[in-house]
């Protein structure tokens, strides 16, 4: 029985990792996945392949599954208003269906 | 004349030293578009090992030295760290096309200390057989932290002032331009983001978190750990067999990576005002000379060794490239990282390592009358 869910994706600078994780937790999401990424956005190319000693170049990508759109939007709003004036970032949302996930509860409850 | 000769002699020796050789080599192969990549994890490990070694060296030697001698150089280190930020605030920031916030952040980065530059200076002092106090490396945090704290505080005071100035204008404009938006709609333009931000953000800068963040930075925490272990435990066996023999080899790898990074950042620097280039070349010398002068005062008052004076001058000339950038990026988010990290990594660090270290060693040798 697949549970419908929203997948919120946040791609932004690695320095914000802890702060964004905190926002996601406080919003009540049951979990999130983070991976290191690189790529090109509106500001400049920030790829993980460049020689780098201070780690200010790397990007991270958060994926958060939420059971309703409201929670996803509240996370997105808070992150965007807090950080996206000064830091590179993009946020998008997709539909997902959770097939297996112990702690994940869909709209109908667990 | 004599001094110039010494400097040139030193400079040639320095050019042939592995430290600078690898730095320039890294720049050259990056310029040629080499595909060579040193994994990031290795750089992280190298930084840990270098600074732990420096800390251990200091810690082992501190056990049998008089710490009262440290007070005056320590005070001078703090003074230099703070002054450097204000120099940038009232020189670089006044130049055309330079944003004040970017200038303050650049000052903070140049005031902060580069662990790798310090490692290079210590290596060269040992090669030249110039004696220095074992605790001289421990001056690092006393310059590093005040500079970063000052930069972040000054920048935020400036931003708050500016915001109060514009806020009164903004409310006037807003009443005209505000269109009704549906509830729960996203801020769609930068202006809307900004107005939302202004409501949420009227913060006084808290100094303690900045200090905490600096102390937790990878370079400084490794060095402080080394210091503590050197003082409290007996790490001589592992020091002799592992940290000390590997030190120079690891430093050469780090220099190679820094050279490569310096080249890749040069392109970024081209996008910001040209004045950063002038500042990055001149500033290391100015900052180093201020510290050298203060160091000489300590030399005459408390017998601070000339080698120690050179270290004080070099850490003033250096600009942070490991733990400083993330701290400033978080502390002054509106400053443009291309400007300050570009200025520091692409020009400041090579100038400090390649020109300032031999210059100050030559100066010390000329004064010492050798």
Automatic annotation (TrEMBL), chain A:
A molecular function GO annotation: enzyme regulator activity
SUPFAM superfamilies for this protein: GlnB-like
GO term, biological process aspect, one: regulation of nitrogen utilization
Pfam family, one: P-II
Gene3D superfamilies cross-referenced by the UniProt entry: 3.30.70.120
InterPro entries: N-reg_PII, N-reg_PII-like_a/b, N-reg_PII/ATP_PRibTrfase_C
Entry protein name: Nitrogen regulatory protein P-II
Organism expressing this protein natively: Pseudocalidococcus azoricus BACA0444
From TrEMBL, chain B:
Signal peptide location: none
Keyword Glycosyltransferase: no
Database matches in Pfam families: Sbt_1
Xref: InterPro entries: Sbt_1
Chain segments annotated as coiled-coil in the UniProt record: none
The entry's keywords: Membrane, Transmembrane, Transmembrane helix
Transmembrane segments: 20-38, 45-64, 70-92, 104-125, 137-159, 245-263, 275-294, 300-318, 339-367
Organism in which the protein naturally occurs: Pseudocalidococcus azoricus BACA0444
Name this protein carries in UniProt: Sodium-dependent bicarbonate transport family permease
Regions of compositional bias (Polar residues) in chain numbering: 188-198
Region: Disordered, residue numbers: 179-198
């Amino acid at each position: 029985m697949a549970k419908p869910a929203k997948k919120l994706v946040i791609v932004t600078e690695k320095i914000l990792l802890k702060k964004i994780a905190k926002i996601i937790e406080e919003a009540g999401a049951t979990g999130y996945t983070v991976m290191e990424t690189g790529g090109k956005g509106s500001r400049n190319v920030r790829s993980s392949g460049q020689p780098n000693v201070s780690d200010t170049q790397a990007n991270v990508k958060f994926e958060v599954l939420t059971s309703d759109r409201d929670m996803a939007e509240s996370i997105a709003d808070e992150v965007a208003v807090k950080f996206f004036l000064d830091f590179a970032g993009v946020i998008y949302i997709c539909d997902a269906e959770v097939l297996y996930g112990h702690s994940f509860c869909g709209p109908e409850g667990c | 004349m004599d001094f110039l000769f010494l400097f040139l002699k030193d400079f040639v020796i320095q050019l042939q030293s592995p430290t600078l050789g690898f730095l320039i080599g890294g720049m050259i192969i990056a310029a040629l578009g080499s595909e060579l990549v040193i994994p990031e994890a290795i750089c992280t490990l190298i930084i840990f090992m270098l600074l732990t070694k420096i800390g251990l060296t200091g810690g082992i030697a501190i056990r049998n030295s008089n710490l009262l001698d440290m007070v005056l150089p320590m005070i001078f280190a703090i003074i230099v760290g703070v002054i450097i930020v204000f120099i940038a605030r009232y020189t670089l920031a006044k130049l055309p096309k330079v944003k004040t916030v970017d200038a303050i952040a650049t000052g903070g980065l140049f005031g902060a200390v580069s662990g790798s530059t310090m490692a290079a200076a210590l290596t060269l002092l040992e090669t030249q057989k110039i004696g220095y106090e074992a605790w001289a490396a421990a001056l690092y945090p006393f310059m590093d932290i005040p500079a970063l704290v000052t930069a972040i505080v000054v920048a935020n005071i400036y931003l708050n002032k500016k915001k109060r100035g514009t806020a009164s204008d903004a409310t006037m404009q807003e009443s005209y331009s505000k269109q009704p938006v549906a509830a729960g709609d996203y801020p769609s333009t930068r202006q809307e983001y900004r107005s939302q931000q202004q409501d949420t953000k009227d913060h006084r800068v808290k100094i303690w978190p900045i200090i905490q963040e600096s102390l937790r930075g990878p370079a400084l925490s490794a060095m402080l750990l080394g210091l503590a272990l050197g003082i409290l435990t007996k790490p001589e066996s592992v020091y002799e067999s592992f940290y000390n023999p590997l030190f120079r080899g690891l430093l050469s790898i780090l220099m190679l990576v820094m050279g490569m990074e310096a080249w890749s950042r040069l392109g970024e620097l081209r996008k910001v005002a040209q004045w950063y280039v002038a500042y990055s070349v001149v500033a290391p010398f100015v900052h180093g000379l201020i510290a050298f002068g203060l160091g000489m005062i300590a030399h005459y008052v408390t017998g601070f060794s000339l080698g120690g004076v050179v270290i004080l001058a070099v850490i003033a000339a250096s600009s942070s490239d490991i733990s400083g950038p993330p701290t400033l990026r978080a502390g002054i988010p509106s400053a443009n990282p291309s400007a300050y990290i570009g200025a520091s990594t692409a020009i400041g660090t090579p100038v400090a390592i390649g020109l300032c270290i031999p210059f100050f060693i030559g100066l010390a040798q000329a004064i010492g009358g050798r």
